[in-house]
Amino acid sequence: MPGRRRIRARIGGLHCSLCTGTIEKALRRRPGVDKVAVTLTHEQALIEYDPSVVRAEDLLGTLRDIGYTISDPRNLHPIDEEERALVRERKRFLVALAMSIAAMGLAAYPVGSPWFPLCVFSIASMVAFAFVVLLGYGWHWATAGSEDSNTVTPCSTAC
Predict the structure, then answer these.
(1) 27: closest CA among 5, 54, 4?
(2) pTM, to two decimals
(3) CATH code of 50's domain
């Protein structure tokens, strides 16, 4: 939503679903808080709020007031920033993978060489690895790799 911010707070002391419910209830009572999602597995809370109404520090104070600890309050990053970093890293990985395959092709030994089967195996395994990595983005990516990278966000529905 325009004008809203999201933070992910790393929370210490979560033990059960009652803890997650307590945190969600306490944060939802705060003015300016739009959404709260707490995950017990990752010990994190995702909070969407209006920065003109409430500050992130006040929300963290609410967590401390009800008895939880924040593992690193100075390390608050907006979710959008983290998602952009992941997209950049994915692109760097894919470029490195493509260059590795190309480099292995350039290092190919002649067909009669005793090292030729190893070269073929190396290239085939790298191509298979690329296929498996790209399969998470869909068959089109895995087979052709030509879809626009800005429209592919496989993790957004699962995270």
Answers:
(1) 54
(2) 0.45
(3) 3.30.70.100
